[in-house]
Amino acid sequence: QVQLLESGGGLVQPGGSLRLSCAASGRILNIDPMGWYRQAPGKQRELVATITSAGSTNYAESVKGRFTISRDNAKNTVYLQMNSLKPEDTAVYYCNADVRAWASSKRDYWGQGTQVTVSS
Known about the structure:
By secondary structure, the chain is mostly beta strands. It is built from no helices and eleven strands. The strands form two sheets. Strands 2, 4, 5, 6, 9, 10 and 11 form a seven-stranded mixed β-sheet that branches.
């Protein structure tokens, strides 16, 4: 099956930056879209940003102007550059991909998540 592997999470001070990466592996024909979601303790999982194979992006209002999503289609990898981080950005961040694979119907896949903690 298709697998998603996230990396780049960690502890950062308010105002700092982190860059998350997510690489998809498997017999992949296309991924459209790819994106990031996050879940804080006691809260529902929420959309952070998505990007299509053509480069069209969508952001949550809370991260507009601070986060930038990008992707490398040849590597089946999506990135999330997070700048001006705030304590309220603290959450587990999950990679999401809508994948078309060989001999399979299009379906959503999720990564295991990477912890982002913003604290002084």
